[in-house]
Amino acid sequence: MQPLIDHARSFRKQSAERPEEFARLAEGQSPQVLFITCSDSRVVPALITGARPGELFELRTAGNIVPPYASEQPTSEAATIEYAVEVLGVDDIVVCGHSHCGAVGALVRDEDLTAVPAVRDWLTHATPKPIGAVEDPTVTDAVQGHILAQLLRLRSYPCVERRLTSGQLRLHGWFYEIHTGSVLAHDAQSDVFAEL
């Protein structure tokens, strides 16, 4: 924890040297992209994209899961998506999964999650169960299929469907390889993930 505290202290000093940049951020936000990704500490959206403060609106969930839309029981994920689309007016939504994903790997390997019931119950939102090779530690095929399932689920959100229909919103599926740093994007025409 101490290195994080030390950095926070030095960050404050560095930010004092750029007061106009931080004053601009205090006036509000207008990100262009909602970036939905896993809570995994190895996935750092700003590092991957080079985004500056205010450029990405982030939603991080275990396994980058987009839960089913249910207006009678709103979730924080649904609220974040709706706010990004309706209030902030983002132009793009990226669902970014990653190699070596513990959540998707647990589903593929059918791991016993009784010791973590909240995790077990959350992962039921990943349906259909991701399919991939049990012995593949990267769970590449399973994660890529899972990304596409989450994009499909996003389309069921009324605000997303409305903006997609009007051509005001674009959806993107990305796969981040932790072990190489590569980012692959899903190409709808060929139905494959290829390097950006």
TrEMBL record:
The keyword Lyase applies. It holds the Pfam family Pro_CA. Its EC number is 4.2.1.1. It comes from the Bacteria. SUPFAM superfamilies: beta-carbonic anhydrase, cab. It is an enzyme of class 4 (lyase). Transmembrane segments: none annotated. Signal peptide: none annotated. Keywords: Lyase, Metal-binding, Zinc. It catalyses: hydrogencarbonate + H(+) = CO2 + H2O. Its cofactor is Zn(2+). Belongs to the beta-class carbonic anhydrase family. Reversible hydration of carbon dioxide. Catalyzes the reversible hydration of carbon dioxide to form bicarbonate. This is Carbonic anhydrase. It comes from Streptomyces ureilyticus. The lineage of its organism: Bacteria, Bacillati, Actinomycetota, Actinomycetes, Kitasatosporales.
